[in-house]
UniProtKB/TrEMBL annotation:
One of its GO terms (cellular component) is plasma membrane. GO terms for molecular function: nitrate transmembrane transporter activity. The gene is ntrB. The lineage of its organism: Bacteria, Pseudomonadati, Pseudomonadota, Alphaproteobacteria, Rhodobacterales. This is Nitrate ABC transporter permease. It comes from Frigidibacter albus. Probably part of an ABC transporter complex. Probably responsible for the translocation of the substrate across the membrane. Residues 101-281 form the ABC transmembrane type-1 domain. The keyword Transmembrane applies. InterPro entries: MetI-like, MetI-like_sf, NtrB. PROSITE patterns: ABC_TM1.
């Protein structure tokens, strides 16, 4: 009987059979493009379409020769330099709207920053006592309804200077919603958190940073967002009367010179700046509160 020997498989062949061929990974670029397309369709396209429709209505409504207001094409033709070059400097008073906005923002930074610090501290103190809150709340409600320009004569008489007077108007306008919202947030802190602070024997400073600020952050930043909006409104109104190189005085000067197209461009600058300030404070609140505020 003949026995046939089996030849062993070479090592190289066994190694080739044992190799694992990786499967091709799905391309991520189409997914990213699809996500970008959804963002554009959901967030960017709607406001752009609405803006274009409003511009078309504006153009059709005021394109006649007898119209009292300029059409968008007139604004572009007469105020093109203000739109394309916001940072030109031709003289002490002849500067671009970008520099004027920055000048106004500097005053807002001083007034609103001071209002934020004082308002949060005072609101935190008042929120600890229901009796104190009942005593001060009617006064706050009365003072917060006073228009910003009504404070201007008082501030001019007190400071004898337009710069500090404008900052005071911003401060006194923005502080009330900050105080009221902060006090409401402190009063809304759950009792369990206060019990934990008592067990851990936290002092007042530790309680403020570890318990009060994280818990009351949604209320605090709601007041700050209202306050920064009021600050921007107040500085524009105050600069119309106090003068200087701010955006408010530019509007008043353009009105006296019958430059309506420049006023419209300035209003766009004011609106965009206010929108950015609101979103900036909202983003800061989102970071501080770890996503609990919108």
């Amino acid at each position: 009987m003949t026995v046939t020997a089996l030849n062993p498989t070479p090592a190289s062949a066994q190694k080739a059979e044992a190799q694992v061929v990786p499967l091709p990974r799905p391309a991520k670029r189409p997914q990213r493009l699809a996500a970008l397309g959804r963002i554009v369709a959901e967030r960017i396209a709607p406001p752009v379409v609405v803006l274009l429709v409003l511009l078309l209505i504006w153009q059709l409504s005021f394109s006649g020769a007898a119209s009292g207001l300029p059409a968008p094409t007139d604004v572009w033709e007469q105020s093109r330099e203000l739109i394309l070059d916001p940072f030109f400097v031709y003289g002490t008073q002849d500067i671009g709207l970008g520099w004027r906005v920055l000048t106004s923002l500097e005053r807002v930074a001083y007034g609103f920053g001071l209002a934020a610090v004082v308002g949060v501290l005072v609101g935190a103190i008042l929120g600890q006592s229901a009796l104190m809150m009942r005593g001060f709340d009617p006064i706050f409600q009365v003072l917060r309804t006073v228009p910003p320009l009504a404070w201007l004569p008082i501030s001019l008489a007190a400071f004898m200077d337009s710069g500090p007077s404008a900052i005071f108007v911003i401060f006194i306008t923005a502080i009330w919603p900050i105080i009221i919202n902060t006090a409401a947030g402190v009063r809304a802190i759950p009792q369990d958190y206060r019990n934990v602070a008592a067990v851990l024997r936290l002092n007042q400073i530790e309680f403020f940073w570890e318990i009060m600020v994280p818990s009351a952050a949604p209320y605090i930043f709601s007041g700050l967002r209202i306050g920064v909006g009021l600050s921007w409104l107040a500085i524009v109104a105050a600069e119309m009367l106090t003068g200087g190189v701010g955006i408010g005085f530019f509007i008043w000067d353009a009105w006296n010179s019958s430059r309506l197209t420049d006023i419209i461009v300035a209003l766009v600058y004011i609106g965009v700046t206010g929108f950015v300030l609101d979103r900036l404070v909202g983003w800061l609140g989102h970071v501080v509160s770890r996503g609990t505020t919108e």
